[in-house]
Design goal:
The protein has 379 residues and is mainly alpha-helical. Helices cover 70% and strands 3% of the residues. It contains 18 helices and 4 strands. The strands form 2 sheets. The chain has a two-stranded antiparallel sheet. The protein has a two-stranded antiparallel sheet with strand order 3-4. GO terms for molecular function: metal ion binding; prenyltransferase activity. Pfam families: polyprenyl_synt (PF00348). This is Polyprenyl synthetase family protein.
Length: 379
């Protein structure tokens, strides 16, 4: 049986307490999360990275500096100081821990943390525009407030700044870090292109969806958790293993995002109800449901095939009841349960990678806690 067939078979199994993948049984139990400890790690990332991030944004020519400041939540649409939600800050936290995994002080990872955060936000600015998302972090997106042109330009500028922040260090390690960041960025863009193309296809395999999400989300998280170590002088073997942890963590992160994109509470996510269904995204729950077979799967496939013949204006006329009905079909077909289990499979694989790196026990515990947080988060 092929791997894709195994994936489809798992999608058909429905609710369960454990699953078998690549010959191993992975429990589906939700790990206990040290919320206070994780919040402290995330806050440390914000505290150390934000001043450098702000200084980088101040290099931008007006009005791009103002637009970027709005995007990061530092000002409101009228330019007044604000304390908006600037995101979870998982990537900066990982970059600082990465430096510590290599035996260096967390401050060594700050340029990497800022560079990865700049690339991440470059992708958010462009994604919001391409996806037509009007809300992010509980307020209007940049393109909605300032127009599509500014969203594109500021996104491009943030990407350029990311490379500038690293290269101006002028070290061999900075060059190695920049190479990893640009490779991750190229994969991220590959993933976004795949994501858009899949919206217009009736069928996408589970294997294709996982490849897309590995590019779109896994690549940058993989870079985040290796870049601090590279800046600290770690060898390529160590960096590659840390990347493996980050890659699988990214797949777990995206699987949870896919669940929240359909069933997430808008008050927590800051997005519309059924946001991924509105955009016709072939996310993991949808793809797994279509691969499952059975009556619910076939009904869902027929609905999506009919959608392909409708205009965007006609699709925009769908009401809440229609999206709720589709979400129920996806769940009935097993797509929601399969995706939840996939998040845990990827979480387990990420944790296993850490066993191949010699690092302080405290740092390993913090990386495990962050992985646990990713799987159980609600936003």
């Amino acid at each position: 049986m092929t791997e894709a067939s195994h994936e489809a078979s798992r999608a058909r199994t429905g609710p369960r307490t454990s699953t078998t993948t690549r010959g191993e049984t992975v429990t589906s139990a939700i790990p206990a999360v040290d919320t206070a400890g994780v919040n402290a790690m995330l806050e440390r990332g914000r505290t150390l990275a934000t001043p450098v991030l702000r200084a980088a944004v101040e290099r931008l020519a007006p009005p791009m500096d103002t637009v970027a400041a709005y995007h990061f939540g530092w000002i409101d649409a009228e330019g007044r100081p604000a304390h908006g939600d600037s995101g979870k800050a998982v990537r900066p936290a990982l970059a600082l821990l990465s430096a510590e995994a290599a035996g260096r002080a967390p401050e060594v990872g700050i340029p990497g943390a800022v560079a990865v955060e700049l690339v991440h936000n470059f992708s958010l600015l462009h994604d919001d525009l391409m996806d037509g998302d009007e809300q992010r972090r509980h307020r209007d997106t940049v393109w909605k407030v300032y127009g599509p042109e500014q969203a594109i330009l500021v996104g491009d500028a943030l990407f350029a700044l990311a490379n500038e922040i690293l290269l101006e260090l002028g070290t061999v390690e900075a060059g190695r870090a920049t190479r990893r960041l640009t490779t991750a960025t190229r994969k991220l863009i590959d993933g976004q292109a795949q994501d858009i193309s899949y919206e217009h296809r009736e069928r996408v395999t589970v294997e294709e969806c996982l490849e897309m999400e590995g590019n779109k989300t896994g690549a940058l998280l993989a870079c985040a958790v290796s870049i601090g170590a590279v800046l600290g002088g770690a060898d390529d073997r160590t960096a590659d293993i840390l990347e493996a942890y980050g890659y699988h963590l990214g797949l777990a992160f995206q699987a949870v995002d896919d669940l929240l994109g359909i069933w997430g509470d808008p008050e927590a996510t800051g997005k519309q109800t059924w946001s991924d269904l509105r955009q016709r995204k072939k996310s993991l729950p949808v793809v797994a449901a279509l691969a499952a077979g059975g009556e619910a799967s076939e009904r869902l496939a027929a609905i999506l095939a009919a959608d392909a013949k409708l205009s965007d204006a006609q699709l925009a006329d769908f009401d809440e009841e229609e999206f709720a009905s589709r979400a129920a079909l996806i769940e009935e077909a097993g797509g929601r349960e399969w995706t939840s289990q996939e998040a845990r499979r990827q979480h387990a694989t990420a944790i296993e990678a850490l066993d191949r790196v010699d690092m302080p026990a405290e740092v390993r515990a913090q990386l495990v806690a962050l992985a646990d947080f990713v799987v159980v988060r609600k936003r």
